[in-house]
Amino acid sequence: MSGARVPDQFSARERLSLGQRITFGVTAAIVIGAFVLAPMAAMVGVIAVISLLYLAVFAERLVLLHRALRDPGLLRVSPERARAEPAENLPVYTVLIPAYREPEVLPHLLTAIADIEYPPDRLDVILLLEEDDDETYAAALAGDPPDYLRIVRVPYSEPRTKPKACNVGLTLARGDLVTIFDAEDRPDPLQLRQAAIAFREVPANVVCLQAKLAYFNHDQNLLTSWFTTEYAMWFDQMLPGLVRQDAPIPLGGTSNHFRADVLRDLGGWDPFNVTEDADLGVRLHRRGYRTLVLDSVTLEEANSDAINWLKQRSRWYKGYLQTWLVHSRQPIAICREIGVLGFLRFNLFVGGTPLLAVLNPLLWALTLMWFAGNLPIIERLFPTWLYFIGLVCLLLGNFTFVYCNVVAARATGIGRLVPQAVLSPAYWLLMSLAATKALLQLVIAPSYWEKTTHGLGAADPVDDDVDELASGAAAREVSHVGV
Amino acid sequence: MPPFTPGAVPAPRARPDAGDPAGTLPLEPLDEAATTSPGAAIVPPAATAAVRRPASARVTARWRPAARGLWVAAAATLALSGSLPRLWDATEAQSPTAYRLTAALAGALALLARARRPPGEPGIHDRQVDYLVGLPLLALAAAELSVPPARFDDRYWNAHADLLALPLLAAGAITLVFGTRALWRQRVTLTVWLLVLAPLTAGTVRRMSDGLAWPPLALARTSGAWLGGWDVVAAPPHGTVLRVADGPGGAVVFGGATHGLVGGLGALATIVIFAATAATWRGAARRALTTAAVCVVVILGRIGVAVLAGLAAGPASARTVLGHGGDVVALGLILAALGGLGLAAGTRRSRGGARRPAAGRATGRPPVARAYPALLLVALVCAGLAALDIPGNRDLGPHRSAPHAAWPDPQPAADPQPATDPQPATDPQPATERVR
Question: pTM of the entire structure?
Answer without folding.
Answer: 0.79
